[in-house]
Design a protein that fits this description.
This protein has 111 residues and is α+β, with helices and mostly antiparallel strands. It is built from 3 helices and 5 strands; from the N terminus they run αβββαββα.
């Protein structure tokens, strides 16, 4: 039987590979390294479930904490990554300004 830690580790490795980042040792349990995955400019907080679910509750407090940790690590952005425990699609929660910057940058590259 898989443990919560092993399921979380699998998800973190998957996210790190997708974003060309690295998994934070101890999932941010140290004073200076927070979060689950980091890249040069982004901090990722990853959440998963032990079994498949139809919903996932996102708390404002969790998003605020991720933003505070992003700031303390000197990262430009943060993303809150979650799945529904089925190891299929990953979903990302971003601030609207971050999302708009991504869209604008992509559109500018296509011009």
């Amino acid at each position: 039987m898989k443990t919560t830690k092993s399921v979380s580790n699998e998800q973190e490795k998957r996210v790190a590979k997708l974003v060309d980042g690295r998994v934070v040792v101890g999932s941010g349990a140290t004073q200076f390294q927070k979060g689950d995955v980091v890249t040069k400019n982004c901090f990722y907080e990853c959440k998963t479930s032990m079994s498949p679910k139809d919903s996932y509750k996102i708390n404002k407090k969790d998003l605020q904490k991720a933003d505070e940790q992003r700031f303390s690590m000197g990262k430009e952005n943060y993303a809150f990554v979650f799945d529904f425990g089925d190891k299929q699609d990953l979903f990302v929660v971003l601030k609207m300004n971050t999302y708009l910057n991504l869209i604008n940058n992509k559109e500018n590259m296509n011009d």
